[in-house]
Amino acid sequence: MDKNNERECNEDLIRERRKCNFNIEELTNIVDGGKARTARRREIQRLLINDPEFLDEIPQDYMSHEDRYSNELRKSAHLMQKLADQESGHDIHQDIGALTGILKDGNPLMVHLSMFIPAILGQANSEQQEKWLGRSLRNEIIGTYAQTELGHGTFVRGLETRATYDPTVEEFVLHTPTITATKWWPGGLGKTCNYCVVMAQLYTQGRCYGPHPFIVQLRDEETHRSLPGITLGEIGPRLGLNSNDNGFLKFENHRIPRTNMLMKHSQVLKDGTYVKPLHNKLSYGTMMLVRVGIVGACSRSLQYAVTIATRYSAVRHQSEIVPGQPEPQILDYQTQQYKVIPQIASVFALIFSARSLSKIQSSVTAKLKDGNTDLLPELHSLSSGLKALSSSDASWGVEVCRLACGGHGYLASSNLPRTYTGTTCAITYEGENTVLLLQVARYLIKSYRSIGKETGASSVSYLADQTSLASSSSSFSNKALVQAFKLSALSLVAEAEARLQKLCDMGQEFYHAWNYCSVLLLKCAEAHTRYYICEKYEQTVDSLKASEGVKNVLQSLCRLYLIYHITLTHGDFLKCGALTPRNIAVLEGEMCDLLAVLRPQAVSIVDAFDIPDELLGSTLGCWDGNVYQRLYDEALKSPLNKTDVPDAYYKYLLPLMKSSL
Length: 661
Ligand SMILES: CCCCCCC/C=C/C(=O)SCCNC(=O)CCNC(=O)[C@H](O)C(C)(C)COP(=O)(O)OP(=O)(O)OC[C@H]1O[C@@H](n2cnc3c(N)ncnc32)[C@H](O)[C@@H]1OP(=O)(O)O
Ligand SMILES: Cc1cc2nc3c(=O)[nH]c(=O)nc-3n(C[C@H](O)[C@H](O)[C@H](O)COP(=O)(O)OP(=O)(O)OC[C@H]3O[C@@H](n4cnc5c(N)ncnc54)[C@H](O)[C@@H]3O)c2cc1C
Prior knowledge:
This protein is α+β, with helices and mostly antiparallel strands.
C-alpha cells in the first residue's frame, strides 16, 4: 500500500490524516526508542513482509490442529534461518518487537528464544555455556523451560519432580513420582524440542535443597524420538496460541550427568556436597527476565488493538448525534472516544515503564556480576508488579478495543480475538498476576516496616515520606497528580500494615493475618505499581526533547492517563484525602475535554505506531480503511462457501425438514 496515494484511501481517513498537527515520524522514533531503531525495525519488517514463505495458504482458522502447528513451525523455522542469514548480524532479543505479527498464534520456537536460551545464559557456568549456548543459538538444539507441573505452577517450592544425586556414578536421577508431578504447559515441549531446562527438587546427601535448573536431552538428535525413560506429548487445544505445542513430560528414573545441573549460582560437587548460591532466589532468574520482556510485549499487543479500533472508528458511521443529520463517524461519540483514546494513552505508559524497568534490570545484572545482590528484591518486586499491571491493562485494553468495533470486532478476520487470546495468557503465565502482586505487597510491607534503614531501593523510598499524608494539593499539574498517586499508594500501604499489625496484636499468626488482609494488600500493590507507571510517564514526557507538536500530544496523553486512572479508583484518592469530591468532579470534566482535544489526532497517533497491514492482519484496521470490501473478501474464503449447498444439508437438515411429511 502506497501511503502517499490518497486516491486508494477511504475519505474519512484522508480527512483524519489531514488534521494531524504533529510530526508522525518523530513520534514513531519515540515509540521505537530512536531513529536507528525505527530504521532497523523497518528493515526487518520489509524482509519479512516481502517473503512469500510467510504467507498462509488458507486462513489459520480453517486449518486442522496439526496443520496449524505444522504451518507455524514451517514459518518459525524459516524466520530463524532468515535472521541467521542476515549479513548485518542480529540480536534476536533486541529485535523481537519487529517480529510481532509475522507469526500469528503462538510460535513453537518462542520459549526456545525467550526462556531456554536466557536460562542457559543466566544459569549455566562458562563450561556449560561453551557446551550448549552456541548450539542453541545456532538452533542445532531446540529447548524449552519446563517448570510447571499438573499439580503446581504458582508454588515453585511445591514442585514434585526430583533430581537425586548419585555420587557413585556422578549422575542425577530425574523422576516424576506422581501424576501431579507431570510437567505440563511448557511451550514447544510436545513435539518441537529435543532439550529442555527442567526445574526439579535437588536431593543430595539425603537432603532436599529446593528447586534447581537442570538441562536435559529429551529426544534423539538424529531421529527426534523421545529417549528411554522420557514420556512426552502435547496437552491439547487452548483458548488461544493453538499453533504452539504446549506439552507434558514425565521421567522414569532418567539419568543425566552431574554436569547437567546448571551451576552458575549453586553447585553439587562430585562427592555430593552442595554449594549454595549468593542469593537463594537466583535460580528464579529466568522468570524475572521474562517478566521484564512481557511489559514491552503487552505494549505491542495494545498498539495492534488500538490501531485497529481507532481506524475502524474513523471509518464506521452509525446512528445520529444531531437528529436528521448524516450518520457520524463513531469516533465522534464521546463514549467511543472514552473506549479508544485512553488505550492509546496506555500504550505510551507501558512503553516508558518497560524502558525504565529494562534499565534497572541491566544495572542489577551488572551488580550481580560483581556478587552484589542488594537490589534483587527491588527488581523482583518491580518486575512482578509491572508484569501484572501491563498484562491486565493490555488484556482489558484489547478487549475494550474489540468491543469498540461492535459485531465486526468478534470476527476472526478483525484480528482482535487472536490479539486478545495472545495477550490474556500473560495474566497467567510467568507468575499468575494475583500471586505476583502479593509478592509486591510483601516487599512493600517489609519496606514500610524498615523505614529508616538504608536499602538503596528507590522505588519504595517514598514510603518514608509520612509528611505527604497530611498535605493535599490544590494544584492540578501533572506532577501534582502524580503526587496524588503517591499519596494514595502510601496511604494504602499504611492502612494494610496497620490492619496486619492489629490482627497480630489480637493474637493471630502473621500468615493468617496476611491472608485475611490480602484483598487490601492486592490494592496496595496495584496502587504502588500504578504510581510507578504514572511517575515514569510524567518524567519521560517532561524531559523529552521533542518538537512542540509531539510534546503537546504526549503531554495530553499523559494527562489523560493520569486522570483516567484517578477516576477508575477515585475512592482511594478520596479516602486518603489526596483529592476532594470537588477535585474529582473537575478532573472528570477535564478528562472529557482531553478526549475532545485528542480525538482529531487519534488516527495520526496510531499511524505513528507504524504497523504494516501485512503484520496487523486485520480487515478493520487496514491503513486504507477499505473495511467493507475486505470483510466481504475474507468471508468468501470460508470453506463453507465452496459450494452453494453443503453436504451437511443432505445428511442432517433435509431428513429433519422432510421428517414430518
Ligand atoms: C516475552 C514473552 C515471552 C512469553 C513466553 C512465556 C511462556 C511462559 C512461561 C512460564 O510460564 S514459565 C513458569 C513461570 N512460573 C512462575 O512464574 C511461577 C510463579 N511463582 C514464583 O515465582 C514463586 O513461587 C513465588 C510466587 C515468587 C514465591 O516463591 P517462594 O515460595 O520461593 O518465595 P516466598 O516464600 O514467597 O518468598 C521468599 C522470599 O523470596 C523472595 N523472592 C521470590 N522470588 C524472587 C526472585 N525472583 N528474586 C528475588 N527474590 C525473590 C520473596 O520476595 C521473599 O523475600 P522476603 O520477603 O523473604 O525477603
Ligand atoms: C499459555 C501458557 C503458556 C505457558 N508456558 C509455560 C512454559 O513454557 N513453561 C512452564 O513451566 N509453564 C508454563 N505455563 C504455566 C504457567 O506458568 C502457570 O500456569 C502459571 O504460573 C500459573 O500457575 P497455575 O496454573 O498453577 O495456577 P494456580 O496457582 O493454580 O492458580 C489458580 C488460582 O489460585 C490462585 N492462587 C494460587 N496461589 C495463590 C496464593 N499464594 N495466594 C493467592 N492466590 C493464589 C491464583 O491467583 C489463581 O486465581 C504456561 C501457561 C500458559 C497459560
